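I have been asked to look over a protein record a colleague put together. Alongside the sequence sits a line of tokens, each denoting a local backbone shape. Please read both lines and tell me whether the tokens look consistent with the sequence. I do not need a full report, just your reasoning and any doubts. I have pasted the whole thing underneath without changing anything.
>
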Amino acid sequence: MADKEYLNLCKTILENGITKDDRTGVGTKSIFGYQMKFDLNKGFPLLTTKKINFNLVWSELLWFIKGDTNIKFLLENKNNIWNEWAFKKWIESEEYTGPDMTDFGHRVLKDKDFAEEYKKQMNIFKENILNDDNFSTKFGDLGNVYGKQWRNFNGIDQLKNVIEQIKINPSSRRLIVSAWNPSEVDTMALPPCHTMFQFYVSDGKLSCQLYQRSADVFLGVPFNIASYSLLTILIAKECGLEVGEFVHTLGDAHIYVNHFEQVKEQMSRDAFKLPSLRLNEFDSIFNLEISDVELIDYESHPFIKAPIAV
């Protein structure tokens, strides 16, 4: 079961992880080098021990597939998971004239009055992204993040190329897409955490292995598992293949200090049966729309909220 595989990772970190400082200043428990495997024939690996919003997973993946790097598409699909990085760009600009939002990621947790003001300023920001094209172009774009690298890595459409190679040369050991572009890392709002993925075809089944250099285990990893599993399923369908495994290899796998209690709560829960997907017919993943993928029979425990480290 997907939940068991994931919760074993959580347990390993809490029991064996080392305490480390980190870029955000929050602090983590961390291990280095860990692998999980998910058989995609045994259900879609969307965790059930806490609710995961599938719309967020799917709309973000479609955003990557389209090569988009502006959060406007995400906001149009009620997806707020990248807002903080774009918001930071705005409040640090000369055009921002509102109250001081410095270090909002930490302050919002400690000051209720500030949290209300932050919410107000974020709503203003989102409205501007959705309704002002010039503002959206200037502050909604996150730089050369995942979608740019997948579809235009120094002029190369990696995702299109790898799909073509799966179709014509499925035995290739070069079915790789890299999001880590050293020449452009400094132009990204957040350097890619899931850095490279490789496909493998055997017995008519498509498998995928992701290498993730940095893994926020409580907030990020459940999305990553679902996202790359979905990508594998979609590409398998386009290529006329069955699905195999999603293999998730982690570099620095960490749980933030302010997520410990949430992780323990999730570990105390029993898993439900995994859901499945309903896909509309399509000839290319590049022509997909949000309505073409539907999650069915998803039963889960409630959401568990936790602060994001920016």
